[in-house]
C-alpha cells in the first residue's frame, strides 16, 4: 500500500490566527503519508515564499518537495505543492494552468515509489461552480494527452454538493476514496477535500485525520487514503 494525503494548510495560519509552520509539520508527521498534496502552501503576496522552508523539511521531515521551477521562493504553483518521501524517485513533473478568474492551478508529478510508478496530481479548485467544472475539464483533457499511468488526484475541490458539479465530471474517470468531512476543522460539516484514483488502482483504508494539532493548525483537516496497484 502507498499512503497518500491532501491538506489545505492555509499558509500555516491556524484557527487561533497564528502562523506556525512547525505545527503544520507536526500534523503532517502525524499523518505520515508517502505522498502529500498541499494547498495554500505559499504566502499570498510578494514573492509568495514557501511557508514550509527547505531547511525545515530537510532537517525535520522524511519528505522533499517536488520542484516545479515556477517561482524562485515558492514551493509549488499558485499554492499547490507536492511532498514525497526522500527516497522516492521523481520521474517528471509539471505545473498545470487552469481556466480561472482568480489565481488557480494544479501540479503533477510522475513518481517511482516502493518500486511502483504513480502519477500524482494536486489541485485547489475555484469557489465558483461554473469555473470548477471548467477546471475539471481542463485537468481531464491534459491528463488524456499524456501516456497512461496509474493516477491519484487530490486536493481542495471546494465542492459542497455530494455528487454534482465537478464531482460528476471526475467520477466518469476516477473513483473517490471514502474519506469524510474535513471542513471546518473544529466542526467538520463538508467534504471539500477529496482523493481520487484511476481504475488501475484500488483503495484500502481512508479517512480524515483528527488530532488536537490538526484541529488548530488550519481550517481544513487532512484527508488520507491507502492505494495499491490492481
From TrEMBL:
A GO MF term: endonuclease activity
GO CC, alphabetical: membrane
One annotated GO biological process: GPI anchor biosynthetic process
Record key words, sorted: Endonuclease, Exonuclease, Hydrolase, Nuclease
The Endonuclease/exonuclease/phosphatase domain, residue ranges: 5-220
One protein family per Pfam: Exo_endo_phos
PANTHER family to which the protein is assigned, alphabetical: CALCOFLUOR WHITE HYPERSENSITIVE PROTEIN PRECURSOR, ENDONUCLEASE_EXONUCLEASE_PHOSPHATASE DOMAIN-CONTAINING PROTEIN
Protein name (database record): Endonuclease/exonuclease/phosphatase family metal-dependent hydrolase
Amino acid at each position: 500500500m502507498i499512503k497518500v494525503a491532501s491538506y489545505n494548510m492555509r499558509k500555516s495560519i491556524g484557527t487561533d490566527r497564528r502562523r506556525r509552520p512547525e505545527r503544520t509539520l507536526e500534523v503532517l508527521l502525524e499523518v505520515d503519508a508517502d505522498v502529500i498534496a498541499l494547498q495554500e502552501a505559499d504566502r499570498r503576496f510578494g514573492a509568495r515564499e514557501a511557508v514550509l522552508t527547505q531547511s525545515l523539511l530537510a532537517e525535520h521531515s522524511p519528505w522533499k518537495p517536488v520542484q516545479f521551477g515556477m517561482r524562485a521562493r515558492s514551493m509549488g504553483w499558485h499554492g499547490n505543492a507536492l511532498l514525497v518521501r526522500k527516497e522516492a524517485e521523481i520521474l517528471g513533473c509539471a505545473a498545470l494552468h487552469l481556466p480561472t478568474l482568480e489565481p488557480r492551478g494544479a501540479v503533477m508529478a510522475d513518481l517511482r515509489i516502493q518500486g511502483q510508478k504513480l502519477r500524482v496530481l494536486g489541485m485547489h479548485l475555484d469557489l465558483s461552480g461554473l469555473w470548477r467544472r471548467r477546471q475539471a475539464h481542463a485537468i481531464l483533457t491534459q491528463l488524456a494527452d499524456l501516456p497512461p499511468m496509474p493516477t491519484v488526484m487530490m486536493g481542495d475541490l471546494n465542492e459542497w454538493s455530494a455528487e454534482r458539479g465537478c464531482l460528476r465530471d471526475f467520477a466518469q474517470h476516477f473513483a473517490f476514496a471514502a474519506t469524510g468531512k474535513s471542513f471546518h476543522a473544529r466542526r467538520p460539516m463538508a467534504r471539500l477535500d477529496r482523493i481520487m484514483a484511476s481504475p488501475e488502482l484500488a483503495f484500502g483504508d481512508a479517512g480524515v485525520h483528527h488530532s488536537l494539532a490538526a484541529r488548530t493548525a488550519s481550517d481544513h483537516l487532512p484527508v488520507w487514503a491507502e492505494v495499491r496497484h490492481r
